[in-house]
Every structure is written in C-alpha cells, then in structure tokens.
Amino acid sequence: MRTLIVKITTLLAVPLTAATLVSAGPAAAASASKATASQTSTSSAARAASAPVRILVNYPFRVRRGHVVSYKVRLVNNLRTKTDEIFLATKFPKNVSKVRIYVPKGSHYHERCTREQLRALCVLPGLKKGHSYTFWAKAWVRGSTSGYLYGYFGGAVVDTSLDTNPKELLSEFGSSIHWVKTKSSIVR
Q1: Of 157, 97, 147, 96, which is closest to residue 125 (Cα–Cα)?
Q2: Chain-centre distance of CA 95, in angstroms?
Q3: Who's near 35: CB < 8 A, 6+ residues apart?
Q4: Cα distance between residue 9 and residue 103, in whole Å
Q5: Are strands 147-158 and 9-20 parallel, antiparallel or unpaired?
Q6: At residue 120, does pLDDT exceed 80?
Q7: Residues 28/68, Cβ–Cβ less than 8 Å
Q8: Which phi and psi (to 5°) does residue 187 adopt?
Q9: Using only C-alpha atoms, what is the Rg of the chain?
Q10: Are 44 and 54 a contacting pair, CB within 8 Å?
Q11: Which residue has the higher pLDDT, 162 or 121?
Q12: pLDDT band for position 138 (50/70/90)?
C-alpha cells in the first residue's frame, strides 16, 4: 500500500560570521549564535541573530531516494549599512550524486559559484540595508541510499574581491564557519 508523503518544510536560521581576509588567516569579527525557528516565528529568529548576515534554510522533512531535493536558502542583511562580500557554502555527504545552486530567473546577483560533486561554493556582492538574496540548492539523491540525508549550509562575510576563488575562501574560513545542519529521512 502506498502512503502519501507530505512535504513538511522547516526553517532553520543561523547568522553568518563576519571575517576579514588577511595574509596570516581569518580573524572572526563577530561571534554567531545558532537560532532555530519555525516558519511561524521568523521574527523571533531575527531578533536572536547578532551577526551581519543571517542564513535561513527551508528543507523537506522527507525525501525520496533517486529524486532531486530542493532547499530554499535565503541570506538576510541584519545591519543598517551595506555588508562586505558574502561567501556561501553548501555541502552534502556521499549519498548525493551532485549539488547545484540556482538563482531566480531575472536576478542580477552577480554571483560567482563553483560546481563540484558534493558541494557548491559562491561569492556574492554585499547586501544593502534591508535586502536579501534567495537561492535554491538542489541535491540529487542516489537511488541506493537509505537512512537520513544531511545537508550543511554556511558562510562568512569577507573583505575580499568578487574575483576570489570560492575554493580558497573555503580553505581560509572552513574552521570558523557555523554550519546549518539539515536532516531529512530518505524513503522509497
């Protein structure tokens, strides 16, 4: 007997850390605290965030193996001024065959993204006061997997140019990034 699987989305919010790029390595300019919120209480998550940019992730509670899973990722500016450039990273474990980040049609984000098998990295221009970026991260789930699908979303506000390679930024800021961890059950 087939059962209908309802797509329940949950909202996770965590602020991105602010960092500056120096020759010796990154220096965290602000500490970030993780805040988890449901879709109905988004305003309480906005008050709890203390970093310049907050990341919000909508993800499905259950996913089907062999299908494509979509995650809605939103970056929101918490400051009263424009932020520096934003580095966004998305990574998945080995039960995913590929990961891509897509921007809405007609948007002029001027992002620079890399596409790898299990992760996607982007560098974006700074956000103006009250503005946000919206992305869709898509993961292709392997047909032979079972258990849970974990996704990791994170980033940093960096003082660098847009021409910087996102792979270099991941190696620089990898240890200081606060990751948003999503967990979805994999069903047939």
Answers
A1: 157
A2: 19
A3: 13, 14, 15, 45, 48, 49
A4: 20
A5: parallel
A6: yes
A7: no
A8: -120, 165
A9: 16
A10: no
A11: 121
A12: very high
Conformation bin of residue 45: beta by default, left when phi > 0, alpha when psi is -120 to 50 = alpha
Identify the H or E element spanning 45.
helix 42-48
Task: Say if residues 188 and 143 touch (Cβ distance below 8 Å).
Answer: no
Question: Who's near 162: CB < 8 A, 6+ residues apart?
Answer: 85, 110, 112, 123, 124, 125
Any residues with CB less than 8 A from the CB of 102 and at least 6 apart, and which?
135, 136, 137, 138
Length reported for the chain: 188
Question: CA–CA separation, 121 vs 165, rounded Å?
Answer: 9
Strands 62-64 and 180-187, by their bridges, are parallel
Residue 148 has pLDDT above 90, yes or no: yes
Exposed e or buried b per residue across 18-42, where buried means at least 16 C-beta atoms within 10 angstroms of its C-beta: bbebeeeebeeeeebeebebeeeee
| 25-58 confidence digits (pLDDT tens) | 333 333 333 333 333 233 333 333 356 888 899 9
